[in-house]
C-alpha cells in the first residue's frame, strides 16, 4: 500500500515527473515504424462495438475497415480489434493520437498489426485398433 501511495504522490503531485514518465513510455512504445496501415487495438472494453471504435478513430483519416473481435458464444468483444486506414501516415497519426487513451472507460493500446500466423492442419481421429482400444497419448490406454 505504501508503494502505491508513493507512486500516486509522485505522479499526482508533480506534473513534470508525470510528463517525464509519459515521454519515456512513449519512446519505448513507438520504437518501430509502421509498415502497414493496419493497427491492432488492445485493451478494449467488453461493451465496445465496431461503431464506437470507428467513431473514435475516424478523426485521424479515412478508414477502410474497423473490426472488433467478438466471442462466438456471447457476441461480446474479446477486448481487441483492428483498424485499417488508407495510408500508413494516417495510421501513424492514429497510433500517436490514440495510444494509452481512454475508450469506453478502459485504457487502449495501439500497435502495428502483425500478419496472422498459419495454423497447423487439424489432426485426424485415429481408428480404434482390432482390440477395440484406442491410445490417448496424454492419459494412457482408454477403452
UniProtKB/TrEMBL annotation:
A Gene Ontology molecular function term for this protein is:
RNA binding
Q: Where does the RRM domain lie? A: 37-115
Question: SMART domains from the xrefs?
Answer: RRM (SM00360)
> What organism is listed for this UniProt entry?
Morella rubra
Q: Where is the composition biased (Polar residues)?
A: 124-143
Q: Which UniProt keywords apply?
A: RNA-binding
* Protein name from the UniProt record: Glycine-rich RNA-binding protein 6, mitochondrial
- Map out region (Disordered) in residue numbers: 114-143
